[in-house]
Design goal:
Layout: E1 6-8, E2 14-16, H1 33-63, H2 69-92
Antiparallel strand pairs: 1-2
Helix pairs in contact: 1-2
Length: 94
């Protein structure tokens, strides 16, 4: 890969980059309002999914005796914090 002219694009492909000094915009950079809402909803959905997976894992590990109550609560607290952050990010876009 020629470091002067080639760059890795957002999708991971390698493209030829010519430096004109101007910022280039592509279709991927231009988001319509509906696409932004979908991206934000996807982020919220990912946050909910991550929380549920972590909560299930904590309960399973606790029931099997791998976690003490304090460690289980700490992990659940961290997962709740992450979920609240995802929800707050979603609310900020509305």
């Amino acid at each position: 890969m020629n470091e002067e002219n080639d760059s890795v694009t957002r999708d991971g492909s390698i493209g030829d980059e010519t430096d004109t000094g101007e910022a280039e915009t592509t279709d991927a950079d231009t988001l319509h309002a509906g696409e932004v809402e979908t991206a934000d909803a996807d982020t919220l959905h990912a946050g909910v999914t991550a929380f549920l997976r972590e909560a299930d894992a904590v309960y399973d590990e606790y029931e099997q005796g791998y976690l003490d109550p304090d460690a289980a609560l700490a992990r659940l607290d961290s997962a709740l914090s992450d979920l609240r952050d995802a929800e707050a990010a979603f609310d900020d876009t509305e």
